[in-house]
Design a protein that fits this description.
The structure is a single chain. With 71 residues, the chain is mainly β. Helices cover 0% and strands 34% of the residues. A 4-stranded antiparallel beta sheet has the order 3-4-5-6, with no helix packed on it.
């Protein structure tokens, strides 16, 4: 997968999950990171059949970045 023109890379042991996070009818990509426990949200600006991801946001709750690091 690509993020714009670069390979989508969140580090080792990523956990991708396709889901329509923003409710626009297109499956976005949520990707959890192993070491730091951050969750990236890649909005799909393409279609479900030809998805395009161009940038990401870290998921937050109450204006704080969600972090679920391993222990």
């Amino acid at each position: 997968l690509f993020d714009g023109t670069d390979t989508l890379d969140v580090g080792s042991y990523s956990a991708p999950f396709p889901y329509d996070w923003n409710g626009d009818g297109k499956k976005d990509l949520l990707v959890g990171q192993f070491v730091y426990g951050l969750i990236r949200f890649y909005p799909n600006v393409g279609t479900n059949y030809d998805p395009v991801f161009n940038g990401y946001e870290l998921l937050t709750a109450d204006d704080s970045i969600i972090s679920l690091p391993f222990s």
